[in-house]
Structures are given as C-alpha cells and as structure tokens.
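Incident log entry.

Two folding requests arrived from the same account within the same minute. Monitoring flagged them as a possible duplicate submission, but the sequences differ. Recording both here for audit purposes.

Request one:
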Amino acid sequence: MNIITVTPRGYCKGVINAINLVKQTRKENPNEKITMLGMIVHNKYVVKAFEEIGIKCIDAKNKTRLELLDEVDSGIVIITAHGASEEVTIKAKEKGLKVVDATCIDVIKTHKIVKEHIKHGDVIYIGKKTHPEAEAIVSISNKVHLISNLDDVDNLPKDLFNPLITNQTTMSLYNIEILINACLLKYKNAKVAEEICNATRIRQEAVRNLKDVDTLLVVGDVNSNNSNQLRNIGLNSGIKNAYLIETVNDLTKEMLENFKTVAITSGASTPTYLTSQVIEKLKEYIETKELKKEIIDITKII
C-alpha cells in the first residue's frame, strides 16, 4: 500500500489573508461584538475556532448576505473571502456598523472586470447558484447573466450585446471549458476572461495528473466548492474511488481496505492540521489496520 501526498495543500493566500484579518480585528477590538456575514471561508472548523474567541458567524442557505445583515444590529461586521455586493456595505454603514472586508483579491479582480465590462455590454458569468461569490457578482447589474450548466446556456437571451464570458474563481477548469465553448458557439463575438484563481488551478491540475492511483481523499468542507471540484476531477480523471472528508474521523475501513495507492489532497480553505491528521492516520492504518477516533484540537486551526 502506498500513500501519495499531493502538493500544494493547505490554505491559499486569500484564505490566509482572510483569517489573519479576522484575528487582527479581534486583537484590536477585544471587547467589541464581531459578526462574520457567512462563513469567513468554507470550513466549519475555521468558523468554530473563531467562535471560540467570541466571533459569531451567521449563515443560512436561503438568505442572501443582504438579508443576513438584518440580524446584525451593532459592532463590527466582516465580509467573507467570497465577497459581497456594494449594497451590503452601504446597508451596514447605514446601520452604524463598522465593516471589515476580507474579500479575496482574486474575487476583487473579477468584480473589477465585470464592473468595467457592463459599461460596454453584457456579462455571462459561470458560477454556482446560491454560492456567495456568484451572489455578489450577479448583484452588480442585470446585465450579468449567471449560468451553471448547458441548459442555462440554451436559455440565455439571443440578443446579448458585446458579451464577455467570465467565471467564479473556484470552478472546475474542465467544466468551465465546456460552458465557455458552448457560449462561444452561440455568441460568435464573445470575449473570454477566464478567472480561475491560481490556487484552484494548480490543485486541480495536480489531481488530474495523478497516475496509478485507485483512491483519492480530499480533505475539505462539504460547503467548499473548490474541495468538491477536486473530488469530481479525480473521478473524471479515472480514479476509481474519490472521497470528500472533513476530518480524520470521517475515514472508514470501507474506504481503505482495498486500496493499493491512495492520494491525499485538500481544498484551499482546509487547515493543514486537519490534513496532517489524515496522513498520519493512514500511515498508522497501514501498520495496524485499525481506525481510532481522533480529537480535533480547535486551537490548532487558526
């Protein structure tokens, strides 16, 4: 039995910046009420670690960031790494809240591209419906048209003016290629600004390039789009078994008993500590063929 640890793993720069900004905000405001408007990054253990130091997270799948803001009446509100609409910032300031913006610089770049292009035409935006990053982009203008699949491409208006095709930063390289090509067939004059962030790109390419691997373990939160995409790319690349697990305690004997070579990677918002536990547990399993429940030390997350 062999173990391959795929690189890179661990936090991307956007996640590091967001986490450091939240920590600094607490340090500078030790007694202030601080609220994260959604998960600061898509990992529940990171959120739990911040809750341990008194930073509340409010989130609901059926509510927009603007609607979540209704639940905050005082203190500091933190915009997550995924970004938010300008209306959120305006509303927060009107409520007398201090705003700390932890939006990833790659997401900010996409916002700028979209805002510039809608002055001259329509934008076709490839993203995941209900994802906060897509929510923020679509809110910019009714000239931004969200698509997630080929049916959405078919349903786009035929008369889009000077269309630009761009995308959510954490989408699959290979899925957006299919959608971009479909859009280019429909709109011969469309331009493309492919915006997969570099951290997502190199992780996806590393998984796609794996050879002679029969099992892939992706350590990441179920809400993390980039983690889910890594699992899907593994399956689409011919890896027989690919699993998304949140912690070492999600490992089962059924996952491991038949593997010859297992590769381990993680999403860009997954703490290195959680992935390291999985790697160590696999080494132990090879030696003993036993799985014991582990303790997750929240203090090691941030």
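Request two (distinct sequence, not a duplicate):
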Amino acid sequence: MADRIEINVPDSFRNLKGQFGGLFGIVIVVLLIWAGFSSVYTVPAESQGVVLRFGKYTDTVDPGLHFKMPFGIDQVSVVQVQRQLKQEFGFATQGATDRSQYSSSRREQSLERSMVTGDLNAATVEWIVQYRIQDPKQFLFEVRDPKDTLRDISESVMRTVVGDRTVDEVITVGRQEIAIEALRMMQTLVDRYELGLSIDLVQLQNVNPPDDVRPSFNEVNQAQQERENLINVANGEYNKVIPRAGGLANQAIQEAEGYALKRVNEAQGDVARFEAMLTEYVKAPEVTKRRIYLETMQEVVSGIEKKIVLDSDASSVLPLLQLTPNN
C-alpha cells in the first residue's frame, strides 16, 4: 500500500480564497442591484420616450413607468412632445434657455429682419414661430439638427412671402395674410424634410421701414390717414345730407300728388254738379235760372257785413239797418 502524501496548504492561501469568495458575492449583489435599477425607467408627463437597443430604434413609449433591458443594452431618450417651443427672428428675448430660440449676435439678428419687398422696397420684419415636436423618432434621427433646420426654413419662407408683396401690404394690411401663407409653406417643407415638427403659429411682430426712411414713411402714412379721415368725414356728411334731402323731396312729391288728386277730384265734382245743373236747366230754363240767381245772391250777400240797397232812381244812399244778424 502506497504511503499517503499530505500537502500542507498555508493558512494565508485559505484566507485569500475566503476573501475572494466574499468579494465575488458582493459583485453579484451589486450587479443584481444595478440590473434592477437600470431596467426600470419613467417617462414624465407631456413627454414620450424613444427606446434604442444597441443604438438601434425599437419603440416609442408614452408617459409612465416602463421596463427595459439592463446594463445599458436599452437606452431611452425622453422628448417633450407637448411643450410649446418658440423661435424668434430679428430680435431676442432675454432669459431664453433654448439655444435655437434666437440668433446670438446682433449682426445676425439685423440680417434676419432686413428684407426686400416685391416692389423693391426695403423693410425690417420681426416674427416668431411656435411649434411642437410631433414625431420624436423623426426629430431625433432623420435630420442632424432639426431646430437649426427649422430656422433656415422659416427665414427662407418669410423672405419668399414678403418678396411677393408690396411694402404697403407688408407693413399695413397684409400682415395676417403673410403669417397664414408662411405657416402653410413652413409646414409643407417641415413635412417634406421629415423634421417631426408641427408648426402651430407664425406671428409677425414689429414690421417697419428701415431707420433711414422711417420719418418719410411715417409722413406718408400720416397723409394717408388724414386722407382717409377726410373721406370718412365727407361720407358722413353725405350720409347725413342726402337722406334728409331725399326725405324732403319725397315729402314734396307726396304733397304735390295729394294736391293734384284734390284738384282733380274737385274739378270732377264741379263737372258733375254742372252737368246735373245743365240737365235741370234744359228741363226748365226760367225756373233754373231764377233759382241759380237767388242761390248766388244768397251766397254773396251773406258774406257782406254792411249792406246798402240803392234804388235805380235814388239820388242818395239809404243805409238799411237790421240786415245783419244780431250778436
């Protein structure tokens, strides 16, 4: 029987093995904790999460608590889809946190607002664009810098729309039409380039002629306003006088027509009375003649206050008393 060989393991090696086993357990626990924390994420309200697995798009999730592959296998980019974003052109609001909201240099802002109208006049146009992120996937991956691209689109569209109109339309009556047309054209280009954005509002702010010609332009505007004011005053006087004259004319016409109708009726009555009298006269001429004479004398004498009867052979006037009715 062979002799047993005994190997003596040093105590330090045994201690090292025990320490290594304890360290391995700690690493396992840490990995489990890390896996638990890295597999859970929350998408805030008014946002959506874009999930990437090994850098490739896999899904878009809504707000709430979600699970993903741990250890960085899945990565989530949170995009605020309900937040109203804004870009300013030709000016800058202080305190903005979005780098793309306005141009940083005053020279760039001056170039943005300087435009040429369709009648080859210069104008300074300041405007804002309000938009939202509609498709997070397109916003993140289709275009390298969608916000700067939107700024370029907005400036190009605004110059095109302003260049199709006169300076008077741009500065006065055509501002609303310009904003509507610019919004339509911007949304068309945004959809074509797949920026994943939705244009909510295009609004013109300060629209003025250049500083060098502004005093002259203001004088022209003041003259036009005075002209419009005089026209309005004249129209007011016209509207006040003409209806009154028309009313007086209608009144005179109605009075004349009433008088004409009255005269015609009276004439027709006289004719009818004369014809009736003529009929009676033909039947009895002497009687009718005497009756007419007496009726006429009665009508004439009754209208005389003081009456004097004269004999044809009398040489003096004899006043007859008691011929008038007693008071």
